[in-house]
Design goal:
Layout: E1 23-27, H1 32-43, E2 47-51, H2 55-58, E3 67-69, H3 73-77, E4 82-85, H4 90-100, E5 113-116, H5 121-135, E6 138-141, E7 144-145, H6 148-153, E8 156-161, H7 167-177, E9 178-185, H8 189-217, H9 222-229, H10 237-248, H11 258-274, H12 280-296, H13 305-308
Parallel strand pairs: 1-2, 1-4, 2-3, 4-5, 5-6, 8-9
Antiparallel strand pairs: 7-8
Helix pairs in contact: 4-5, 8-10, 8-11, 8-12, 11-12
């Protein structure tokens, strides 16, 4: 499915050398991902205007560079040339952007850009494209791969998609937060790639959690599972990391909250149905993660193990 690219063309292609300094309004700057990303951008020398629904969570950013802590999305957008959204879901993104976009400054010869980096699925991205087009704002769809630790280390992977002429302006942002940027195509392609990669990540963790529960239920120490896999092609470092949390029953602080994992799984399931795909595994994963999120939503998503664990092991 093709998705329109939003970048108003009446001002001509942007010259990245004409206005070397961008000011970035970061909405969601107090979240696990947003805070780390905003801090890394500030440390890289970018001027940041930060907003978070709970202001206190964003205030420590002021210690890390040229950072203004804003009280509202509109306040954050004033004086900004790029709007960056890193929020939990489509409704939060759309609500904050609707307030911020009219206040964006832009450059005298360049339109403001909206850099949408939240994971909101295809329909959510379409809603954002429509909002950007209606307001004459350039739109770049660029969700990221990575959780808390890669975000803190500036080692995310950006899945960028959008108009070619916008890329030189947003690349300094990506360089500050990521170890790699993959440009995928038109706006929306980044989100579709994120859906695909999330399908793999969530399936691996859910399958690993159930396998660990199976081992315990059969009276087998799960350590032996990983000894058997060690050095082979199925020996996944990511699964070993999640097993460390499961074996210690330490699910806080979360690297990635189970509630958000469940949301992402539902976006994958939604995309599969929209494209006429019969994918029963991801449907089951979505149901299982949602079940676990009821009680353990604020814990790391490896806590999905607790839904399957034998009673004596939970």
């Amino acid at each position: 499915m093709s998705m329109p690219q939003s970048y108003p063309g009446d001002a001509g292609p942007p010259d990245p050398l004409a206005f070397p300094g961008e000011t970035v309004a970061v909405l969601g700057a107090g979240g696990t991902m947003g805070f780390a990303m905003a801090r890394n951008m500030a440390r890289a020398g970018l001027s940041i205007r930060a907003w978070n629904r709970t202001r206190a969570k964003a205030e420590p950013l002021a210690e890390h560079g040229d950072v203004h802590i804003a009280d509202t999305p509109a306040d954050a957008a004033r004086g900004a040339t790029i709007l960056l959204t890193m929020l939990a879901d489509t409704d939060a993104v759309e609500s904050a952007a609707e307030q911020a976009i009219p206040a964006l400054t832009g450059h005298p010869e360049q339109h403001p850009l909206w850099l949408q980096m939240s994971t909101i699925g295809e329909s959510g991205t379409q809603r954002c494209v429509k909002l950007a087009n209606s307001s004459g704002t350039g739109f770049v769809d660029a969700p990221v791969l990575g959780t808390r630790e890669p975000a803190e280390q500036g080692k995310l992977v950006v899945l960028g998609s959008g108009p070619e002429e916008a890329r030189p302006r947003v690349q300094p942002v990506f360089d500050a937060v990521a170890q790699k940027t993959i440009w995928v195509g038109e706006a929306g392609a980044g989100t579709r790639l994120k859906i695909v990669t999330n399908s793999w990540v969530l399936s691996v963790v859910e399958a690993g959690a159930e396998t660990i529960a199976l081992a315990e239920g059969l009276g087998i120490n799960p350590d032996l599972l990983f000894q058997a896999l060690e050095g082979g092609t199925l020996d996944l470092p990511y699964l070993r990391m999640k097993y460390a949390a499961i074996s210690a029953r330490e699910f806080k602080p979360p690297s990635f909250r189970l509630q958000l994992a469940a949301k992402d799984a539902s976006l994958i399931d939604e995309a599969a149905h929209q494209h006429g795909l019969d994918l029963p595994l991801i449907e089951t994963v979505a149901e299982r993660l949602s079940e676990g999120a009821v009680e353990h939503g604020d814990e790391d998503f490896s806590a999905t193990y607790l839904t399957s664990a034998p009673d004596e092991a939970a």
